[in-house]
């Protein structure tokens, strides 16, 4: 293994490397691969862990005697709200248990803000001349798509290891009343793996904002999704915001999509009781209540908050080796070459790979041509535009380990080939 | 039983009647009743019919091999869409299977129309100076609440036995481009029990509208909810509209809320394929897919479209006697008195009771004071304002028959007492 940085190679050595990688790439083409690292989906083996759900609930009533099969109970099943309140470090009355998608809850909050305004809005956001959102990058593509669909302008700030660049955020929101919100994935961020520190969270909660109704969309999708035994604890944003005099600023979201079933879990919203009332008030115009049978199914399955944590340890056993494999192949194939950096996340669903600037699109294209689907380059940026064309999001949870290995060998070859192409161009 | 119309009674006889009803009412007060005829909820006995759902699905894959536990499949499970396409007389590709609430699907359509406009809109409805909806009355309170929440002005037309007064509708929509839609519950309407005839449906589908993007919200909530063996067939609004050159006019909604579980069923949207694409396009910005496990659970439970029809016969056996009891008590107690008219619906969930104009509010108030909860007077009208204060919606499905009897005795006494009060005032 030659570990000389590409920049230090002679023209001849570079040409040799290019030829080697071209040959390796052509060999890959003959394999007829069909591999997919695009989306953060759990594997069938992970889903199997929750298959007792298929025979639950055993009862049709919750612990308060409510028949879960009938209409009603807009806020969701009390037992399940209590369980997840403990897991999210909030009070049960601050929690709504909803349908199967936290993304839909986020969308609904954006719709309500746009159509009706928030508890602290002067008018509906839709009546403002302009609404802007701060988007730490790289970030979650679906967050950005949602904002784009509503015509909300996106302003980026860097996502650092301890969360968004909070000085940049504070500067943006201090004087611009059109800056109405920020997306944060606080724990094991998609895709950077970052964990928002207590300090950064406290500053986000307390920073002065020109908009009276500034909202932190705190998407805690991976709150419990640890890849090591050292488990990060998410900052308690609701308490921090309340203590700072901005109790209605955060809207927290979570779900069991990557705990029980990806498509048939339960989503949660947590916020100030005023925000909960606001959310339920609008929701109640178009819903008579969520699927409480699925709520009870989950409450029986987990048994307790500790039951959820124990369940997550089983997920870790399945997926941690896949993340280790991503790191192993990248290290062995690209280590010392100075053509890529990547993180080794302590949780979540993604590995963030930064390749030679200007080659991310080429890498994805090369991989696709030999049967390895990667998330399109730029996906982790608003409007799908990565200004440096450097970022690639890898999602290794879904395929079996052997396929992760095979796919990562392809990725490594493509990264090196694209880098050599660029260096010799 | 004295069956003389109140108007024909002498002053003395009227005074006697008033005293008798007052005495009867005071006796009711001593019973300590706690009965509820407010909402169209299925009874526990009806919900029990579907309890095999609690042990389904037996598989985790649909007939095409899709793992229903994972993300994806925005349009819903193919097997279930095919089953309900047959029941709704549409093509599978015209059907979306969603979450547990058709009301939420209607709300989402209104949100999309308001925020983004429809496939045939010149601009989002929210950018129009005014948007109006035609509302046949009496109608479903939640339909009206939804429109009110969005600031959509409601214009009423009478709901006749064969559907809305279509001359009145046609006149309203012909010249007024702000008239953008109409609500229709086509089969066993809430609360009138009306069934929209083929002729009325054809005229609604074909009538010229000043708005290019006029929408019929065709809420077929009770399509299969027959109370007799003579089963009404809903008019095929999609085909009618398509034949009339307005394929995108109707948006059809249905659900299994009153077939399987009220709170944990599956909701459906059916429309032109362009409308389906429009709906899914917007939905996809905030959802990765519906609960396909619940879709498969339902597909396995019913087995086929005929399985759904057979299941509905079991519901009929449970609830038809309750509707018969409502009619029996009203006939025995109020027959010939000329103080009320009511329908004997052939399906659906409601009995529409019209009392002496000006007394509906009083009747509901009197009933409440002795422990019988009725839907607030006016609920079946926009802004909860029944101009004649005459309409009361009775929902007899939830309580056991004995309670229906007891509650209806109270209703009859209150109707008669309020009428006597008014006649002697």
TrEMBL record, chains A, B:
<dbReference type="GO" id="GO:0004069">
    <property type="term" value="F:L-aspartate:2-oxoglutarate aminotransferase activity"/>
</dbReference>
<dbReference type="InterPro" id="IPR015421">
    <property type="entry name" value="PyrdxlP-dep_Trfase_major"/>
</dbReference>
<keyword id="KW-0238">DNA-binding</keyword>
<dbReference type="InterPro" id="IPR015424">
    <property type="entry name" value="PyrdxlP-dep_Trfase"/>
</dbReference>
<dbReference type="Pfam" id="PF12897">
    <property type="entry name" value="Asp_aminotransf"/>
</dbReference>
<keyword id="KW-0032">Aminotransferase</keyword>
<dbReference type="InterPro" id="IPR015422">
    <property type="entry name" value="PyrdxlP-dep_Trfase_small"/>
</dbReference>
<dbReference type="InterPro" id="IPR024551">
    <property type="entry name" value="AspAT_Ic"/>
</dbReference>
<dbReference type="GO" id="GO:0003677">
    <property type="term" value="F:DNA binding"/>
</dbReference>
<keyword id="KW-0808">Transferase</keyword>
<protein>
    <submittedName>
        <fullName>DNA-binding transcriptional regulator, MocR family, contains an aminotransferase domain</fullName>
    </submittedName>
</protein>
